[in-house]
Amino acid sequence: MTDTNSAEPLVPRKRPTQERSRRTFDSILNAAREVLIDVGFESLTCEQIATRAELPIGTIYQYFANKYVVVCELDRQDSSTVRDELTAFASEIPSLEWPQLLEKFLDHLAELWQNDPSRRAVWLAVQSTPATRATASINERILAEQVGRVLAPLTPDQRERRAMMAQFLVHTAFSLLSFSVQDGHDHDEIVQELKRMLGRYLLLEETPRTHPSVEGP
Question: What is the pTM of this model?
Fold first, then answer.
């Protein structure tokens, strides 16, 4: 039994190595997303996932100890998708054009969150226990490391702070995107505020180098 009060990360019991098992693994995750949207995390069960995926419950447990491991794998899947997309954006736009890169990438993330309600559902689900939060933190940190590499040309004098800056950017973006898709909130307006906030935050790092005369007392 997985201890959800532990800070140890939650991972599947095994990962598929053959095409047939990969299809089964993916069908479990796809079904979990659908059920998570329909009933929410509190009501989510492995039995519901098995029914939606049209698989025996034993097949679910071959890969996942419980629903907490399932949502952590969904979070890893979402983070991996964002990392792939960030790589594509970073190669498309030169690092000197970082404001355009930031705006375009945030627009893309915002579209994902607006059009795919499972993004917010998964993000909220992994906040539920110490173990799921620890696992989500690892996924977020891996993404932040990639963001840090994108930031490197912009912040050459901030090597020691860059990891923290990247983690701040990633967590702030995800938190506000989750906020933006709540009922009653103006998604587009919040995304624009997110762009302003993160853009000005990064612009502050340019100031000492771009304007050497701007110094403290």
Answer: 0.84
